[in-house]
Amino acid sequence: MINYFNFRKFNDKYLITNDFGKYAFLSAEDFKTLVLNEEVKNEELDTYLRNNKFVIESSKTKFIEDNYADMRAAKSYLHTATSLFIFVVTNACNMSCVYCQAQSEKGTIRGNMSFETAEKAVDIVLECPSDSISIEFQGGEPLINFETIKHIIEYTNQKNTSKHIDFNLVSNLTLLTEENADYLTKHHVRISVSLDGDELLHNMNRKYRVGGGTYQDALKGIKLICKYGAAPGAIQTTTRNSLSRYKEIIDAYVELGFRSIILRPLTPLGYANETWMEIGYTEEEFMEFYNNSLNYILELNCQGIKFREGHAQIMLEKMFNGVSVNYMELRSPCGAGVGQMAFYYNGNVYTCDEGRMLSEMGNDIFKMGNVYESSYGDLIESTACKAVCSASFLESLPSCSDCVYNPYCGVCPVINYALEKDLISRKYKSLRCGFYKGILDSLFNILYQEQKNYTSILYDWVTGEEE
To answer: Residue 136 has what DSSP assignment?
Structure first.
């Protein structure tokens, strides 16, 4: 008996996938045999299909009993409560990036999170039943309100009795001081810096409000963190300026000692939405950039330089191991509300960081509540939380439910709403859908061609130890 699967024509074969994240390439003849539920004559292929749950050998009840643990593993993120809490400690910033998603011309009020608001937010965090959580400081530029960051860390540690709590900071690092660096490293705060590539590209995208590039000051911040014994991560954003400079971007990361990069497409929120015609691109243009970058990264690996692309690594984890990394954008339902929450500086609570970014554009549709009025339970029970969950359940969405890439993908209701004024995209293939499908096309094409060097590198990204 055949198990449920999705499929698509892939070059001269058929790619099939199932809910466990397993996949296979079948010839037209073998595909027809499988669909007709006939016996597969190729013994090796028959064994593969049975081992990877495309063919059910026993009764449906026995199949469920034997495989429910694997399905639980594939959807393991559904068995935990909210684990990521974003604290937007200020919406002020010393920079004016061409693609800023956290600010908009419509948003003119600037403010900092007070100690009182911060404590109310932490109290909600500690109500969450998750044993392990992350608190992430964002902005604007969060170092502008460093005193509140310190207060949140100290108040949380004082009030916490049983949870494992990680602290993270996403910063441009241009305002980092010796005192800040010492405090952050002593309190084991993980740090991520926004870095778009080499100096020329970075300064094109990320300028000071008063004018001038920010690369050298960001570099000083990276070196200062390293001086205190920490190893910062980095966040890249792709603009039209980036498309022809993939080698320069990757070389800059490698030279600075980073061992991975997530090639992030632009999100059309805030300034990025308002200036899309100047800095945006089509999905075809982004995919040409991505494929050039991926091939260059793989060639570096062939030369012994260990370096990974993050989106590929997340998707490969499901493809090779059947386990979903808890990456909020690539899960079903998405992580909004049930996986992450964003506390704005004024106490408003949003389903996710993108939800609070949309509020900067004047729309509070993804607001779940306020720290002065809501408990954790109130936020989870909010209409906004329920709406984004139901709108991002891939298994019930048109065009997603029967897509061959369903096990590896995800949708963002916030971006759908920003672009189409609807939580569910009415287009056959939205912009973000095109990006993710393109990435998966690239990965499966490598596996389809059985490029041994590249395939072994992709396996190593998932099974090998982190550098």
So the answer is: E
